[in-house]
C-alpha cells in the first residue's frame, strides 16, 4: 500500500475513533430507583427510542402477528393499566403493543414504548394479574434504563459504528450486510442478573400500584417452573435462580400489600380478562 492509499484509510479511521470517543465521553453514572449505580448515556434517549422503534418494526416483520382480537385487546388493556402508573415522562410515550403467534412463553418491552407478547405466555400467565407480572417486569427494564446500560457497555468501535449507522438511516445497508438491529443492540437478549432482579422489584411494585395482585407474581413463576419440567423455558433459564426468586417475590408481595390495597381503594381495579 502506498503512502497516499494509507492516508486515505487513516482519515476515516480517525473520524470513527473521534465518534466513538465523543460517545464514550457522553456516558455518565446514575442511580436507579432501587439505588443501584448505573453506567449510561452511550446514546441519547431520543436515539434509544429510535433504536427501540426500529427493532420493534424488525420483530414485526420477522414474527407472525396474532389476529385474535380478544387476546390483542387483553394485552393492550393490561399494558395500558400498567403504563397509567408510570412517571409522567414515560406516560407521555405513545405505547404500542404487538401480539405474536408463537408458542414460546415470552414477552419483551423496548425503549420508545414498544411491548411485544408471544401467545405462548398465556399457557403460564393464566390470569390478568399473572400477565401483569410478566409485562410489568418487562416495562421495568425500560423504566430503569437497562437498554441504555447494555448499549453503553457495548460501545466498542464496531458496535458504535453499527449503531450510529442505523441511527443515521443506514439501516438498510446494515441489514444487507447480514446484520440485525436486534443483534447489534442485544435488545431481546436476557439482561444481567442485576437487571433481571431489579426488573422484578420495579415490576412487582408497578403491578401493585396499578391494582394487580402482587402475590400473583409468585404464582406466575411457579407456573413457569411447572411448564418447564426438567428443562425450564428459555425465558426462565436466563433469569436468576427460580427458587430464590420466588422467595423474594413472596417477601415483597407481603410488603406491597398496603400499596395494592391503596390502589384498589382508589378505584384501580383492572378488568382486562
UniProtKB/TrEMBL annotation:
<dbReference type="GO" id="GO:0016020">
    <property type="term" value="C:membrane"/>
</dbReference>
<protein>
    <submittedName>
        <fullName>M48 family peptidase</fullName>
    </submittedName>
</protein>
<feature type="domain" description="Peptidase M48">
    <location>
        <begin position="70"/>
        <end position="252"/>
    </location>
</feature>
<dbReference type="InterPro" id="IPR001915">
    <property type="entry name" value="Peptidase_M48"/>
</dbReference>
<keyword id="KW-0482">Metalloprotease</keyword>
<comment type="similarity">
    <text>Belongs to the peptidase M48 family.</text>
</comment>
<dbReference type="GO" id="GO:0004222">
    <property type="term" value="F:metalloendopeptidase activity"/>
</dbReference>
<keyword id="KW-0645">Protease</keyword>
<keyword id="KW-0862">Zinc</keyword>
<keyword id="KW-0378">Hydrolase</keyword>
<dbReference type="Pfam" id="PF01435">
    <property type="entry name" value="Peptidase_M48"/>
</dbReference>
<keyword id="KW-0479">Metal-binding</keyword>
<dbReference type="GO" id="GO:0046872">
    <property type="term" value="F:metal ion binding"/>
</dbReference>
<dbReference type="InterPro" id="IPR051156">
    <property type="entry name" value="Mito/Outer_Membr_Metalloprot"/>
</dbReference>
<dbReference type="GO" id="GO:0051603">
    <property type="term" value="P:proteolysis involved in protein catabolic process"/>
</dbReference>
Amino acid at each position: 500500500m502506498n503512502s497516499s492509499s494509507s492516508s486515505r484509510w487513516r482519515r476515516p479511521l480517525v473520524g470513527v475513533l473521534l465518534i466513538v470517543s465523543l460517545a464514550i465521553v457522553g456516558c455518565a453514572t446514575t442511580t436507579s430507583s432501587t439505588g443501584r449505580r448505573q453506567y449510561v448515556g452511550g446514546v441519547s434517549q431520543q436515539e434509544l427510542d429510535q433504536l427501540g422503534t426500529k427493532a420493534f418494526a424488525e420483530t414485526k416483520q420477522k414474527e407472525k402477528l396474532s389476529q385474535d382480537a380478544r387476546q390483542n385487546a387483553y394485552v393492550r388493556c393490561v399494558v395500558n393499566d400498567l403504563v397509567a402508573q408510570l412517571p409522567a415522562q414515560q406516560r407521555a410515550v405513545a405505547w404500542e403493543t404487538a401480539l405474536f403467534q408463537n408458542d414460546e412463553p415470552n414477552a419483551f418491552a423496548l425503549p420508545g414504548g414498544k411491548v411485544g407478547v408471544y401467545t405462548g405466555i398465556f399457557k403460564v400467565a393464566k390470569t390478568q394479574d399473572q400477565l401483569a407480572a410478566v409485562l410489568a417486569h418487562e416495562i421495568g427494564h425500560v423504566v430503569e434504563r437497562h437498554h441504555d446500560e447494555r448499549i453503553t457497555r457495548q460501545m466498542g468501535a464496531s458496535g458504535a459504528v453499527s449503531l450510529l449507522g442505523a441511527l443515521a438511516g443506514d439501516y438498510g445497508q446494515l441489514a444487507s450486510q447480514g446484520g440485525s438491529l436486534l443483534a447489534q443492540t442485544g435488545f431481546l437478549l436476557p439482561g444481567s442478573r442485576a437487571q433481571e432482579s431489579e426488573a422484578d422489584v420495579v415490576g412487582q411494585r408497578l403491578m401493585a400500584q396499578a391494582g394487580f395482585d402482587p402475590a400473583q407474581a409468585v404464582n406466575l413463576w411457579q407456573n413457569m417452573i411447572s411448564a418447564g419440567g426438567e428443562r425450564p423455558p428459555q425465558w426462565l433459564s436466563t433469569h436468576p435462580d427460580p427458587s430464590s426468586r420466588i422467595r423474594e417475590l413472596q417477601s415483597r408481595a407481603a410488603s406491597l400489600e398496603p400499596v395494592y390495597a391503596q390502589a384498589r381503594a382508589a378505584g384501580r381495579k383492572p378488568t382486562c380478562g
